[in-house]
Each structure stands twice: as structure tokens, then as C-alpha cells.
Amino acid sequence: MAGGDDSKGHRARLRARFLADDSAATPDYELLELLLFYALPRVDTKPIAKALMARYGSLAAVLAAPADDLRKTEGIGDGAAALLKAVRAAGIHLARENITQRPVLDSGARVIDYCRATLGHGESEGFRVLFLDTKNALIADEAQGEGTVNRLAVFPREVVKRALDLGASAIILAHNHPSGDTTPSAADIETTKAIVEAAAALGIAVHDHIIISRSHHTSLKTAGLM
Questions:
Q1: β-pairing verdict for 170-176 and 205-212
Q2: What pLDDT, in 10s, does the model give residues 10-19?
Q3: For residue 175, what pLDDT band results from cuts at 50, 70 and 90?
């Protein structure tokens, strides 16, 4: 539906309120509506934003949704999907920057935030490895293994080989549980122990294995499981 004077006035008021107030207080659906202004300049974005929120439940979940899935919502085309994916990518880059400015082990909360940004909203299990240098600064963060909704295949020797290729002295493991329950499974514990053993044989430390979801996390190190 094309936007008239009322729509233009609404956009101006929402933009002004966002700029004048603490943006952290802006509701998710209004932030989403504001973002969509720039992809859909002649469309009333309020119903589209509300439809996306009803479908996904939160702004974070909308931004994490695959582009093909986003386009299933009426009004979302390539431009809007690209904008939403770009916003998520920018957020991940910001979270990564926050853990590269200091030793990772001094940035526990930021590491959790970064893992949640990259993995927390995944619909299938994903596994990432943070590779660290001798000062525990981040060298690289890469995906490893292939997963489905509730199953993940990770090969310890591939993780360790990549650490050697990068010259890493230590690693942190992270993966998500799409169910939301971050309780480690028997397979999670076995895989962690296998990676720890393979890494130790080559002088590489495994600092932790973090299981993440949208709102929770479990550290296998803190739980005494590694």
C-alpha cells in the first residue's frame, strides 16, 4: 500500500523520536519498521514489521532468518531482505570487534554475546572455533562441521589441523542448540574430550566449549565437563 501524507508524518515522528530518545528503549517492532523505511520508501512498513514480528517473535530472530524465508512475508523483496541481512552482518562485525580489542579470556561476556550473535538464532546446529594466539587474542573465528536441527558432525583432527595452519596456541569451541536447552549431550561431552586430547598432544589448549541458544548458555569448563 502506497504511503500518503499520514504515512510520511508517521515516518517523520518515528524517526525523530528514535533520534531524540535512548534507542535502547525503542520496541523491536518500531526498530524493524524504521529499518524497513530505507528499503521500502513508498510503502507503509508498519504492517510488514508486525507480520515479521508475529512470525519470528523478536527483532534478533528476524535478522537471523534466511533471506529466502524472509521473502515469504508479503512485502519483503530482495532489497528489504538484503538490508535486514546487512544489519545482522554489521552487528556480528561489531561483536567481533569487541572481542578483538583485548585478550579473549578477559572478555567473557563479550565472547558470549559474540557466540549468541553468530549462532544463537540458528535453526540447525552450527559449530564455530575461535582460534587464539599466545596472548589469547583472536586470530580467526571459523565454522566447522555440518549440522541438522539436532545433529552435528565435527572431526577433532580437522579442528586441530586448522589450529596448526593458523598458528593458534589455544581455541574456544562454541555451538548452538536450536531447541533452546543448552544442557550438554553425551555426544557434546565426548566430542569436546576428543578435541581436548588431540589438541593437547600438539601443545594447543582448549579453554572452553560454550553451548549457546537465544537466551541461555552453558560453559562445559564451568560445569566441570572438560
A1: parallel
A2: 778 877 777 7
A3: very high
Helix H or strand E encompassing 127: strand 127-132
Give me the residue label for grid cell 601443545.
203
How far apart are the C-alpha atoms of 136 and 207, rounded to whole Å?
10
Whether residue 16 is contained in a domain is answered as yes
Provide the Cα torsion 77, 64, 185, 173; round to 10°.
130
pTM for this prediction = 0.70
Q: Give the domain-ending residue among 56, 91, 126.
A: 91
Residues 155-174: b if buried by 16+ CB within 10 A, e if exposed: ebeebbebbeebebbbbbbb
Strand, helix or coil for residue 179 = coil
CB-based contacts of 113, cutoff 8 Å, min separation 6 = 95, 98
Looking at the structure, do residues 130 and 197 belong to the same domain, yes or no? yes
Burial class from Cβ neighbours inside 10 Å (0-12, 13-18, 19+) for residue 66 reads: exposed
- List the one residue out of 215, 221, 130, 137 whose CA is nearest residue 177: 215
